[in-house]
């Protein structure tokens, strides 16, 4: 009959209250550890993106010995092309005109003099392309993006080997 032993009510109370206390105590260090790790990661990421770690990681070589950066950033220049006005290919008796004012974005190594020398070729390439466009090809932002890409490609071919960074529209009018 030793096997049919009744549990002591005092032991049952201690057993019922002990596991939750042990769990609460065992989770507290884990939560604190996770909070510290997350805090360290967030602080490290913030310091990295703020540039505070650049001297330690070797990113500060461009600064001079006195700590000031004396190297000037390359200056982008702009060159305005003359207004381009062409009649679009409509296939109808009533013409539709396109007036376009373009500004070229030049990298520092390209001068306006080099672009000016190629101006007749630039105007010819642009007008030849523009005259073959249909009005429906210019509708919406997608039409403007395609027009910009095609003009950039043609102007870069006209001024090669001098690079052009971008083509900017100052005016784009279709009547």
TrEMBL record:
Claim: Cell membrane is one of the keywords in the record: yes
Residue stretches in coiled coil: none
Keyword Cell inner membrane: yes
GO cellular component: bacterial-type flagellum basal body; plasma membrane
InterPro entries referenced in this protein's UniProt entry, alphabetically: FliL
Subcellular location: Cell inner membrane; Cell membrane
Residue ranges of the region described as Disordered: 1-21
Membrane topology according to the record: Single-pass membrane protein
GO biological process, one term: bacterial-type flagellum-dependent swarming motility
Entry-linked Pfam families: FliL
Stretches that traverse the bilayer: 30-51
Key words, A-Z: Cell inner membrane, Cell membrane, Cell projection, Chemotaxis, Cilium, Flagellar rotation, Flagellum, Membrane, Transmembrane, Transmembrane helix
Family classification: Belongs to the FliL family.
Function: Controls the rotational direction of flagella during chemotaxis.
Name of the protein: Flagellar protein FliL
Source organism: Candidatus Defluviicoccus seviourii
């Amino acid at each position: 009959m030793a096997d049919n032993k009744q549990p002591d009510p005092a032991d049952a109370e201690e057993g019922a209250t002990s596991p939750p206390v042990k769990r609460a105590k065992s989770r507290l260090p884990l939560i604190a550890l996770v909070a510290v790790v997350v805090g360290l990661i967030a602080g490290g990421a913030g310091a990295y993106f703020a540039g505070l770690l650049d001297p330690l990681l070797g990113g500060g070589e461009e600064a001079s010995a006195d700590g000031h950066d004396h190297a000037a950033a390359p200056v982008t220049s702009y060159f305005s092309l003359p207004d381009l006005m062409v009649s679009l290919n409509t296939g109808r008796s009533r013409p539709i005109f396109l007036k376009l004012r373009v500004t070229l974005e030049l990298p520092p190594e390209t001068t306006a003099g080099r672009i000016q020398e190629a101006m007749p070729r630039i105007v010819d390439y642009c007008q030849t392309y523009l005259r073959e466009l249909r009005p429906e090809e210019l509708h919406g932002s997608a039409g403007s993006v395609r027009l910009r890409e095609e003009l950039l490609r043609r102007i870069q071919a006209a001024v090669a080997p001098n690079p052009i960074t971008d083509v900017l529209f100052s005016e784009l009018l279709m009547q």
